[in-house]
Amino acid sequence: MRHIIQTMNAQPTSDGAGVNLYRSLGSSRLPDLDPFLLLDEFKSDQAQDYLAGFPPHPHRGFETVTYMLAGAMRHKDSQGNTGHLRAGSVQWMTAARGIIHEEMPEQEDGLMWGFQLWVNLPAKAKMEPPRYQDIPPSDIPEAALDNGGRIRVIAGESHGVSGAVQGIATAPLYVDIRLPKHSTLTHPVPSTHNALVYVFEGEATFGPTEERRTLQRGQLGVLSKGEDSLTIQTQDSEASLLLLAGQPLKEPIVKYGPFVMNTQEEIFQAIRDYQSGNLVG
Ligand code: MN
Q1: Cα–Cα nearest to 129, from 104, 158, 95, 102
Q2: What region does 223 belong to: left with phi over 0, alpha with psi -120 to 50, or beta?
Q3: Ligand 1 centroid to 186 CA: how many Å?
Q4: Please, which of 64, 78, 161, 194 could form a disulfide with 280 given CB 3.0 to 4.6 Å?
Q5: 98 φ/ψ angles, rounded to the nearest 5 degrees
Q6: Ligand 1 centroid from CA 7, angstroms
Q7: How many Å lie between the centroid of ligand 1 and the Cα of residue 59?
Q8: CA of 65 to the centre of ligand 1 (A)
Q9: How close is the Cα of 114 to the center of ligand 1, in Å?
Q10: What would the pLDDT profile of 80-126 be if each residue is shown by its tens digit?
Q11: What is the pLDDT of residue 187?
Q12: Fold of 4-274
């Protein structure tokens, strides 16, 4: 049974052209959890927190995953892809050798709520052609639980249900778990994978009795390694949370803004390629 070995509160920060968001993974206290590089939650019903959006910017060497809970964004990229990100949809963008994209809000008021996750790529896949998967809400399968809860399976496997996103290098598990009050769920986690949980509504308790930890909205928990399941319990509150797990790459990581490579020289090359117009194509 896995348990929580480290917790952290998501920290308010700003990214893009001035979008206010909450960062947990990817902050100085928790720079990464191989193969995951960043986890942001954006949630605001104040237009000035999100209106500026994410105007055109590059990525190389990893994957960006946007999962929307409320609101609408429009994606456009240098490969000619367009995407309509609406509540319940997922955009899994494998930037690999390079992509330039923008994500701009399609609303001027109302709630905008979702997550962005960065997933690293192995060295051998960092310079492959990019890939873009835009998954509408109706194409994300759900597992119904006996206790009334439900699990949306974005990637990986849960309760006999295969995720919407397939063929990702780090074989990730990405599930959105909704539990009613006074319930218990034991969820498989591949024993080879690093894993974390992030509570985005209510509160839940994780791990076996002797090592229990409770997380509330806006808290991330890093899970212990090696075991193949996680027990989640709720008491007087419902809980909504993400459970993420991925195969660690165990390769050197050199980050510079939107580029994540294995060596400093590869970062310099990415900057040169971007400046000379050769990042994409
Ligand atoms: Mn981006």
Answers
A1: 95
A2: beta
A3: 34
A4: 78
A5: 160, 140
A6: 26
A7: 7
A8: 9
A9: 14
A10: 999 999 999 999 999 999 999 999 999 989 999 999 999 999 999 99
A11: 97
A12: Jelly Rolls (2.60.120)
Q: Are 180 and 227 in contact (CB under 8 A)?
A: no
Q: How many CA atoms lie within 13 A of 170 on its CB side?
A: 29
Domain boundaries, the chain: 4-274
The beta-strand segments (E) located in 4-53 are 4-9, 11-15, 19-23, 36-44
Span 241-253, pLDDT tens digits:
999 999 999 999 9
Quote the CA–CA distance of 203 and 234 in Å, as a whole number.
Answer: 7
**Among residues of the chain, what percentage have pLDDT more than 70?**
100
- Gap from CA of 210 to ligand 1 centroid (Å): 41
Alpha carbon distance 101, 157 (integer Å)? 29
Instruction: Give the per-residue pLDDT at 41.
Output: 97
**pLDDT for 224:** 98
Q: How many Å lie between the centroid of ligand 1 and the Cα of residue 187?
A: 31
Residue 226, both tokens: 């090696």
Mark out the alpha helices in the chain (DSSP H runs).
264-275
DSSP character at residue 33:
B
From the CA of 58, how far away is ligand 1's center (Å)? 7
The C-alpha atoms of residue 267 and residue 127 are separated, in whole angstroms, by: 12
pLDDT reported for residue 281: 72
The pLDDT tens digits for 149-207 are: 999 999 999 999 999 999 999 999 999 999 999 999 999 999 999 999 999 999 999 99
Compute the mean pLDDT over every residue in the chain, rounded to the nearest whole number.
96
Alpha-carbon distance 32 to 29, whole Å? 9
